[in-house]
């Protein structure tokens, strides 16, 4: 399977563009480069999906995937739909292998179809599903699927270690991190209109975060740091791009900290403007921490920021060590402490020489090691 244009794969994944999120981007970027219409994607039916698929390089099959709380298990209908769609694809098309976006539900469905048609099975592991899934039956099913996969692609060394902890042998695991579109995410200067849209100028400092509004991302720690930064005579504003369950909490926190005038929650933005917002920032920060086992498996957003030449701040929890090299492309800190976050931000916002060095190193690292073409090559060479 070395000719990208002739990779005949069945890919089963809940997450795929235009769904938001790093995993959806990862799979779309890789498989669109890996194969043509002979590569089949089975994924969720989401708003905008039908229109998006019209010009896609692969053949995309959309399935309505709902969970019903009155059913036991509540996801049984999802499994049935994914199975029959996948079964029919292999029945009527030449498929060389099956790839699953994660262990459940995709990996279990992939295992069943692979067993029937005697096809190799590759499963992606992201980290947080291993550390958070503690329901006995689901955990047993997940381990079963991993044990029966022919290959597991772990997104970081952290995720590989978590797989080892549950008894998966290293010879079955290959560590391949996500990448970044270095043609799209790159240094650029034309960003003044973005700053004007939130009524600030280039003279003011901008901290940027991108991601789901989830407690483990550490956005609250940045909000808590703003008063201290401004007390140090730094005219700083905080821009957050994304949506999520913590939106109201973050809004109320900004009010209680009296920094609501300096916090800008932009929600979803256009794909065109995302690289521009990275360039508008002075520092990118996602000071992630572990909360009840929920942690960051890798962090594609760090690569996106680095590709734009920006210094980054990450937490030490999870797999961020593969995305951020401490004191080389950014700072990794114990983000359980708000004071640690504040000190790291203060350092990068006041030490231009250090910030420039980290940003330049990050840019070089992403170009040399994390372009999507390189990631695709690693995947194809490992399976």
- For the record, give the distance between the C-alpha atoms at the N and C termini, rounded to a whole number: 8 Å
**How many helices does DSSP assign?**
15
The neighbouring-strand order within the major sheet is: 3-2-1-4-5-6-7
Classified in CATH, the superfamily of the largest domain is Glycogen Phosphorylase B
Task: Please tell me about this protein's structure.
With 383 residues, the chain is an alpha/beta fold. The protein has 2 domains: 4-175, Glycogen Phosphorylase B (Rossmann fold, 3-Layer(aba) Sandwich); 192-369, Glycogen Phosphorylase B (Rossmann fold, 3-Layer(aba) Sandwich), CATH 3.40.50. The protein is built from 15 helices and 13 strands. It has helices spanning 22-34, 49-53, 76-92, 103-117, 128-132, 136-148, 157-165, 192-197, 219-231, 247-256, 273-280, 300-307, 338-350, 352-369, 372-382; strands at residues 9-12, 40-44, 59-63, 97-100, 121-125, 151-154, 173-175, 205-210, 236-241, 263-267, 283-286, 312-315, 330-333. The strands form 2 sheets. It has a 7-stranded parallel β-sheet. A 6-stranded parallel β-sheet has the order 10-9-8-11-12-13, sandwiched between helices. Strand 8 (205-210), helix 9 and strand 9 (236-241) form a beta-alpha-beta unit. Helix 4 (103-117) crosses helix 6. The longest helix has 18 residues, at 352-369. The protein is globular. The N and C termini lie close together (8 Å). 46% of the residues are buried.
């Amino acid at each position: 399977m070395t000719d990208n244009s002739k990779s005949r794969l069945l890919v089963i994944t809940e997450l795929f563009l235009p769904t938001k999120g790093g995993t959806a981007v990862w799979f779309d970027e890789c498989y669109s480069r890996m194969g043509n219409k002979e590569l089949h994607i089975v994924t969720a039916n989401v708003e905008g999906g039908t229109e998006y698929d019209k010009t896609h390089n692969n053949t995309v099959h959309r399935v309505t995937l709902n969970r019903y709380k009155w059913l036991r298990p509540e996801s049984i209908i999802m499994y049935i739909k994914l199975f029959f769609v996948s079964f029919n694809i292999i029945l009527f098309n030449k498929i060389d292998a099956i790839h699953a976006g994660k262990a459940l539900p995709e990996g279990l469905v992939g295992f069943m179809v692979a067993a029937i048609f005697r096809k190799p099975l590759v499963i992606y592991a992201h980290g947080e599903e291993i550390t958070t899934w503690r329901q006995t039956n689901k955990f047993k099913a997940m381990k079963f699927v991993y044990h029966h996969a022919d290959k597991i692609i772990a997104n970081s060394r952290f995720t590989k270690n978590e797989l080892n902890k549950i008894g998966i042998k290293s010879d079955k695991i290959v560590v391949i991190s996500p990448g970044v579109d270095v043609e799209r995410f790159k240094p650029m200067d034309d960003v003044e209109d973005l700053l004007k849209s939130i009524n600030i100028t280039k003279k003011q400092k901008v901290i940027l975060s991108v991601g789901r509004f989830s407690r483990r991302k550490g956005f609250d720690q940045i909000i808590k740091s703003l008063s201290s930064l401004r007390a140090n005579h730094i005219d700083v504003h905080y821009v957050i791009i994304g949506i999520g369950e913590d939106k109201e909490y973050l809004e109320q926190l900004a009010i209680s900290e009296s920094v609501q005038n300096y916090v800008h929650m932009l929600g979803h933005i256009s794909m065109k403007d995302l690289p521009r917002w990275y360039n508008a920032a002075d520092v990118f920060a996602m000071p992630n921490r572990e909360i009840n086992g929920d942690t960051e498996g890798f962090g594609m957003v760090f690569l996106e920021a680095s590709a734009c030449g920006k210094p980054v701040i990450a937490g030490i929890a999870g797999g961020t060590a593969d995305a951020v090299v401490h004191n080389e492309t950014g700072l990794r800190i114990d983000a359980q402490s708000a004071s640690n976050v504040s000190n790291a931000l203060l350092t990068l916002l006041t030490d231009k020489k250090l910030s420039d060095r980290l940003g330049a190193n990050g840019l070089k690292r992403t170009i040399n090691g994390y372009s999507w073409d390189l990631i695709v090559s690693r995947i194809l060479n490992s399976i």
